[in-house]
Specification:
By secondary structure, the protein is mainly α. The protein has helices at residues 7-14, 18-29, 33-51, 56-62, 68-79, 83-94. Helix 3 (33-51) crosses helix 5 and helix 3 (33-51) crosses helix 6 (83-94). The two termini are 30 Å apart. The model has no long low-confidence stretch (mean pLDDT 92).
């Protein structure tokens, strides 16, 4: 959820080359670094949208997005919905 998580930072933290990380994500998971990280961030945002009343912008920052447009784009790419619409639909399902 670190908004400052970049490939080189991850590479140093786990002592694996950037190229190895990129190749592994590409070949094994058919994704790239940003899609991989954003997938985790969106999953965390989904839980917060369902289980809390926190404002969407608060959730956006908590899960590591520092741009509303980037958050909305990534969230919609994964879920097919905007964060606000996702929350509305989740609320309808649980009530």
């Amino acid at each position: 959820m670190d908004e400052e998580l970049y490939l080189n930072k991850l590479s140093k933290a786990i002592s694996v080359s950037e190229n190895h990380i990129l190749e592994s994500l590409s070949q094994r998971l058919k994704t790239n670094f940003f899609q991989f990280v954003n997938g985790y961030r969106v999953a965390a945002a989904e839980i917060l949208l369902q289980e809390t009343d926190k404002h969407v912008s608060t959730i956006q920052y908590e899960v590591g997005f520092n741009s509303k447009s980037t958050f909305n784009t990534a969230f919609k790419k994964v879920t097919g919905l905007t964060p606000s619409l996702y929350r509305k639909q989740a609320t309808l399902v649980t009530h």
